[in-house]
Write a structure and sequence with these properties.
This protein is α/β, with parallel strands linked by helices. Among the domains are: 159 residues, Rossmann fold (3-Layer(aba) Sandwich), CATH 3.40.50.980; 98 residues, 2-Layer Sandwich (GMP Synthetase, Chain A, domain 3), CATH 3.30.300. It contains 18 helices and 29 strands. Strands 4-3-13-12-14-15-16-17-18 form a nine-stranded mixed sheet, sandwiched between helices. It has an eight-stranded mixed sheet with strand order 9-8-7-5-6-10-11-21, sandwiched between helices. Strands 19, 20, 22, 23 and 24 form a five-stranded antiparallel sheet that branches. Helix 3 packs across helix 4 and helix 11 crosses helix 12. The N and C termini lie far apart (50 Å).
Length: 567
């Protein structure tokens, strides 16, 4: 298999900025960056040199790098000296996107503890379970999530991040009070393969698992992103007939829209930590709104916009009728799911001078596994990008035998970004990890040039608007309705959302779809609520294991929809 990007070859060569060497990582031989920082504390220390440059804005709030690190240091001092948090202990972060979320991540890392990134869009019971499952000893939450945690029985000591519109601080220490404390703390040196953070992922069971990322995992992901940017800079410099140094001298500070949730790897690592490490600026939004996004692009001179297909569809539509100056925008990237071909064409028409990026990744690989930009997307629009330089991929049959290149099978990945383990999940670890390889559960093929094409998933999961929806979890919640005899959920293709969730029911009595929809809204987070509900008079067909044959239910649903549209 050849590496077709000569820039990456040059950047990873001996003596180059991203020199790659072989090393044993947790007992397995892998390619690693020779000059990588030891831990996240080294990344943070280097980022302090950006000083008075703007780092993050949200509404009227604007923090420089100095102001941001002052917050993080004060929180570090309080956690270490008042809360007595020790190195290696887990501290949960549970709040909406805000500068305080990011300061909490840095603060926890500063003292050698492990930030636990909890999905703040989940129900209280789900968030409480996640905090407990990760062995959290403390939680930093905003008022809304802290109330939900307390109602679900979570009694961990906490700091409450509240604004003027929130209720009183629920009887715990307020973030504002912590900011009056001393920033003094003792930094704890962590080894590169020590746990650095936990992010939650899931599989067919629908029960979230805490993915344990090491410092090496995260740092390798950051350096891989920086290497990709360096490669693009080399290409641009060649096009303009100048050196990379001269190009950088003419470029303003990079500015990225902070759209992805920080509890996702794409938000925390690919956007937040990447900008922190490179000296970029982040512009946050309270809620997604395409018109507001266009206003911010003009006002803040945003150069990079990353989002899921849903957001790109909205952005393209809004941009067609806008008077805002969008000339600062240089890059659009799509995460969470594949970039639909129709959307790709719309982006190219609406933003002809923008570099488009897409790829394939997962929490267990600390982000991206493959990436494509520009010509790589145009020439192979059905592919999910080219595998990254630090990643090994093999494609196997059901027995685990490696298949020839180009044949369809299950992806296995290996490399320094692959997580150490699932926390307290010995059975899942035994199933998913073998000899340094991680079994993805995704089905596809790999060609001679290292381009991946993902064709299906073994895992029973729907990705809608960039959010993972686990069918088993939704079915469990909806199955608690007293009239429900059977319930099954599945995803169907959707131009805007990528996929949307549909729920099928067999019920007793005269329960209506509207009543079931109301029940779903009352018992599920908004993004998990089905977009359509179908009722069946008789039981669903079951396979030999007693499970609903979802493919038959889905096929019948799609046939009915097609017939309705034709009528």
């Amino acid at each position: 298999m050849k590496q077709s990007d000569p820039n990456i070859t040059a950047l990873t060569a001996p003596g180059a900025p991203f020199e790659v060497v072989s090393a044993y990582v947790l007992g397995h031989d892998m390619r690693v960056f020779k000059n990588a920082p030891e831990n996240l504390a080294d990344i943070f220390q280097e980022a302090r040199r950006h000083g008075g440059a703007e780092f993050v804005t949200l509404g009227e709030t604007c923090l420089t790098f100095d102001a941001f690190f002052d917050q993080a240091d004060r929180l570090s001092g309080w956690l270490q000296n008042t809360a007595n948090i020790s190195p290696g202990q887990s501290v949960a972060i549970c709040m909406k996107n805000c500068p305080e979320w990011m300061a909490a991540f840095v603060a926890i890392s500063n003292i050698g503890a492990v930030p636990v990134s909890i999905n703040s869009r989940g129900e209280g019971a789900v968030m409480s379970y996640a905090a407990e499952d990760a062995d959290s000893v403390f939680v930093i939450a905003d008022a809304k999530r802290l109330r939900a945690l307390r109602e679900a029985g979570c009694d961990l000591p906490a700091i409450c991040v509240a604004n003027e519109s929130d209720e009183a601080s629920i009887g715990v220490t307020s973030y504002a009070d912590v900011m009056t404390s001393t920033p003094d703390y003792t930094s704890t040196v962590r080894k590169t393969d020590n746990p650095a953070a936990m992010f939650f992922t899931s599989g067919t069971t629908g029960r979230a698992k805490a993915a344990v990322m090491t410092h090496r995992n995260i740092i390798t992901g950051l350096l891989t992103t920086q290497m990709a940017i360096a490669s693009i800079s080399m290409t641009m410099a060649e096009q303009y007939g100048m050196t990379v140094e001269a190009l950088k001298a003419h470029m303003p500070q990079s500015c990225s829209a902070m759209i992805f949730p920080l509890f996702h790897v794409s938000g925390c690592i690919s956007t937040f930590l990447s900008s922190l490490a490179s000296g970029g600026k982040l512009v946050m939004m309270n809620h997604w709104n395409a018109q507001e996004a266009l206003r911010l692009i003009e006002a803040e001179k945003i150069s990079s916009f990353g989002g899921v297909p849903t957001m790109h569809w909205d952005l393209v539509k809004a941009a067609k009728n806008t008077k805002h100056d969008l000339s600062s925008l240089r890059a659009l990237s799509c995460g969470g799911q594949a970039l639909p071909l129709g959307l790709l064409a719309e982006i190219r028409e609406t933003f002809p001078n923008v570099i488009i990026g897409a790829g394939y990744g997962m929490t267990e690989a600390s982000g991206a596994v493959s990436q494509a930009t520009g010509e790589g997307i145009t020439s192979r629009p059905k592919a999910s990008g080219q595998k990254l330089a630090m990643i090994d991929i093999k494609v196997t049959d059901d027995e685990g035998q490696v298949l020839p290149e180009g044949e369809i099978g299950e992806f296995w990945v290996r490399g320094p970004t692959v997580i150490k383990e699932y926390h307290r999940r010995p059975e899942a670890n035994a199933k998913s990890f073998k000899d340094g390889w991680y079994r993805t559960g995704d089905i596809g093929k790999l060609d001679l040039d290292g381009y991946l094409t993902v064709v299906d998933r073994k895992t029973d999961m729907v990705i809608s608007g960039g959010e993972n929806i686990y069918c088993a979890e939704v079915e469990q919640a909806l199955g608690r309705h007293p009239a429900v005899r059977q319930v099954t959920t599945f995803g169907v293709a959707d131009d805007r959302l990528g996929e949307r969730l549909v729920a099928g029911f067999v019920v007793d009595g005269q329960v209506t779809p509207d009543e079931l929809m109301d029940y779903a809204k009352d018992n599920l987070a908004a993004y998990k609520v089905p977009t359509d509900i179908i009722l069946k008079a008789n039981s669903f067909a079951l396979n030999a294991m007693g499970k609903v044959e979802k493919h038959k239910v889905r096929a019948a649903y799609l046939a009915r929809k097609e017939k309705e549209q034709a009528a």
